[in-house]
Design goal:
Layout lengths: L2 H12 L8 E2 L4 E8 L3 H10 L6 E4 L4 E3 L4 H5 L9 E3 L9 E3 L3 E5 L4 E4 L4 E9 L4 E3 L15 E2 L7 H10 L3 E6 L10 H15 L6 E6 L9 H14 L2 E3 L2 E7 L4 E6 L7 E4 L2 E3 L3 E3 L2 H4 L27 E3 L12 H19 L12 E6 L5 E6 L20 H17 L7
Length: about 425
């Protein structure tokens, strides 16, 4: 049994299993639809299936549900961490069974999943959306210094307030903001916190005393030219030094230095000292997904699905969406919002014996906070061209104050009250 599995078992044993109606202990059972994962994707699909499919179950061990996009604002001192958290029981749709356990094995030939708690659960249709794994140990030295010595990350609920603490405590010296290669949740988040920090330091009159570095594995600021051009102006305004085609390779907490390697062939590496550093970990499909028969044959080993229908390429009664799926879109909550209705419709098609026909076009959006009062909204699809959802007279491709209010208030309201209820 792996360390991950052992940790899950310990957590389950320590959890109070007294739950409201709809909760199910981990016993061998069968459901029309089994959804693996009770995050954004799982709850959104469950809500859309409620009342249309007789027997839907969500398998997830978590007591808490998080609106993770808010953690950037928490790290930037613009929101309270607690507002991003609610009880998992409060977001499970009323007619849906909650199996408070963790899946550890897929058996698609037998139409079953196996859980940490020892249950074997059968299904007619399976929806896989367990989220993405944070691979902290891929960067030597990072795990030893998270939350101390000026190093933090907005990618966890526990650490985001530390980011704000370290930003406030930095009045001079060197500040470093990193982004790893490979797909990650909200690829704009590594930049957003740099801009929130720089804007705060400017308001305090200390920005000129801080050497700010942004290290990106990409050759440009963003994969869509229109947004990349706008962000070029943002970093120039703050005086941020951007290191392209580079990524963090190790950290020496004692010396407070960070080493970086070049993504370009034969490109030179470099080293930076730091007084404050925001680190984003490498991310991947959960290990148990990688080793499963549902994974694709790439190095990433995501769940192997058609990028439009989200149907598994080898097992037609299996679907996947969200961060663990192989679809080549940006991994954002906005992508999930567009994927969920497609998956829900196609699941119902599959149950009725018809071929899935709804298609996802790769839409994703990244609300890029460029200051503590402005944001630009990068919307795009598989074509990597802008795909704006606002009227033409609202140019969301440039930083705007009204977009800031959308980020801070509008999107959280939509998430809790519309998206998780299958209404948006």
């Amino acid at each position: 049994m792996s360390l991950v599995t052992l940790d899950l078992v310990r957590n389950l044993r320590q959890t109070d299993l007294t739950e409201p109606r709809g909760f199910s202990m981990a016993t061998t059972a069968h459901h029309d639809v089994v959804i693996v994962g009770g995050g954004s994707a799982g709850i959104s699909v469950a809500a859309r299936l409620e009342g249309k499919v007789d027997d839907v179950a969500v398998i997830d061990p978590s007591d808490k549900h998080y609106y993770q996009p808010l953690w950037t604002l928490v790290g930037g001192g613009c929101a309270k961490r607690e507002t991003s958290q609610r009880a998992e029981s409060s977001v499970i749709p009323k007619g849906v069974t909650w199996v408070k356990d963790a899946v550890i094995e897929f058996a698609p030939d037998d139409n079953q999943v196996v859980t940490v708690g020892g249950a074997t659960i059968g299904y007619d249709v399976l929806v896989v959306c367990p989220g993405i794994q944070l691979d902290w140990n891929k960067i030597p030295g990072v795990s030893d210094t998270l939350g101390i010595g000026g190093v933090s990350s907005n990618y966890t609920y526990e650490l985001a307030p530390k980011t704000w603490e370290f930003i406030q405590g930095t009045r001079s010296g060197v500040a470093v903001f990193t982004m790893p290669s490979g797909p990650i949740k909200c690829a704009g988040a590594p930049q957003k916190i740099a801009y929130l920090a720089a804007d705060y330091w400017r308001s305090q009159g200390v920005l000129d005393s801080i050497d700010v570095h942004l290290v990106l594995p990409t050759p440009g600021m963003f994969g869509v030219k229109e947004f990349s051009d706008a962000l070029d102006e943002v970093v120039a305004d703050y005086g941020i030094q951007v290191h392209f085609s580079s990524e963090l390779s190790s950290v020496d907490p004692d010396a407070r230095t960070a080493s970086f390697t070049s993504m370009a062939e034969d490109g030179p590496g470099f080293e930076l000292s730091y007084d404050m550093m925001h680190v984003v970990p490498h991310q991947s499909a959960p290990d148990w997904v990688k080793s499963s028969p549902l994974a694709n044959d790439t190095a990433a080993r995501y769940v192997d699905v058609d990028k439009h229908t989200h149907q598994h390429v080898r097992h037609p009664n299996v679907f996947a969406l969200g961060d663990a799926g192989s679809t080549p879109n940006s991994k954002t909550g906005a992508a999930i919002r567009k994927q969920a209705p497609v998956v829900a419709f196609n699941v119902m098609q599959q149950l009725s014996g018809r071929a899935p026909s709804a298609e996802y076009d790769g839409y994703a959006s990244c609300p890029l906070t460029t200051s503590r009062h402005a944001m630009l909204l990068a919307e795009f699809d598989y074509s990597l061209r802008p795909a704006p959802s606002f009227p033409a007279f609202i140019d969301a491709q440039k930083p705007r104050r009204d977009m800031w209010y959308l980020k801070k208030y509008g999107l959280p309201f939509m998430y809790w009250n519309l998206m998780l209820k299958g209404r948006a």
